[in-house]
Write a structure and sequence with these properties.
218 residues; alpha+beta; six-stranded antiparallel beta sheet; three-stranded antiparallel beta sheet; 31% helix
C-alpha cells in the first residue's frame, strides 16, 4: 500500500501541475498544525502538498531529463527540511503579499531558540496563585511562599537570547505569557508554467526547530 500511496501522490501532484499556473515552495517555521490548517482553508482555491519531500521531488522530476515540465527540477532541488508546495492560479503578487504578512506569534517549544533574554526580578509574582509555587520550584525558579504570595527569593534568568530552550524554560515562558516563536511560511522559490520560469526567492534556512510536519495533501 505504501508504494500505491506514493504513486497516487505523484499522480496528484502532476495533475495539479497540469491544472494550475504556478508553484511556490515554502519553508515552515515553527510548525503548528492548527495554524497551517487555517492557511489551507483560506487558500482552498489552491493546492498544498506538505511533507514527503522525496515523493514530491519524484513527481516534479529531480533532473532535467526526468522533469515533468520545463524548470521543475529546479523546484525539486528546493524540497528539503520542513517545506511544502503551494500550487495555485493566484497571481505572484497576491501570493507574495499574503505570505509576507503571515506571521503569528506563538509560544516557543522545547528545542526552539530564545529570541529575547528574560530576567525575573526578586520579589512577588502576583500573577501566580499560591498553589503554583511547587510547580514553579520544580521548573527551577527560586520561588517560595511569603505571606501566601508566590515570591522569587532572588533574581532569576529564565533564558538568554539565542540559546536553545529546555522543556523547563519553554514551560516557564508559557506560564509567563512570553511568546518567543513565530509561525511563518517563508517563500523559497517560485515556478511559472509559462516559459517554465524558475525564481529563487530566498536562500533556504537550515531548520532550527525539529519535528517533522508529517502532513499529507488533502
Amino acid at each position: 500500500p505504501g508504494l500505491e500511496t506514493k504513486a497516487k501522490l505523484v499522480e496528484t501532484v502532476r495533475g495539479a501541475v497540469d491544472q494550475y499556473a504556478r508553484i511556490f515552495v515554502f519553508q515552515v517555521e515553527n510548525m503548528r498544525n492548527n495554524k497551517l490548517k487555517a492557511v489551507r482553508d483560506k487558500w482552498s482555491h489552491s493546492r498544498f502538498f506538505i511533507g514527503k519531500n522525496r515523493v514530491l521531488s519524484k513527481a516534479l522530476g529531480s533532473t532535467e531529463e526526468e522533469e515533468y515540465s520545463e524548470g521543475l527540477s529546479m523546484v525539486a532541488k528546493c524540497l528539503r527540511n520542513e517545506c511544502g508546495l503551494l500550487v495555485t492560479n493566484q497571481s505572484s503578487e497576491e501570493v507574495l503579499t499574503y505570505f509576507s504578512q503571515l506571521a503569528e506569534p506563538d509560544f516557543a517549544r522545547t528545542g526552539g531558540v530564545a529570541t529575547d533574554t528574560v530576567v525575573l526580578g526578586e520579589g512577588p509574582l502576583p500573577d501566580f496563585g499560591h498553589s503554583m509555587e511547587p510547580q514553579l520550584r520544580q521548573l527551577g525558579l527560586p520561588a517560595s511562599l511569603v505571606r501566601g504570595v508566590v515570591t522569587l527569593v532572588k533574581e532569576h534568568t529564565v533564558c538568554q537570547k539565542g540559546e536553545t530552550l529546555t522543556s523547563e524554560q519553554a514551560r516557564i515562558l508559557k506560564l509567563l505569557g512570553h511568546q518567543q516563536a513565530e509561525f511563518k511560511l517563508q517563500l523559497v522559490a517560485s515556478w511559472d508554467k509559462e516559459g517554465g520560469k524558475f525564481t529563487l526567492l530566498k536562500e533556504q534556512k537550515e531548520q532550527q526547530e525539529g519535528g517533522s510536519a508529517g502532513e499529507e495533501e488533502d
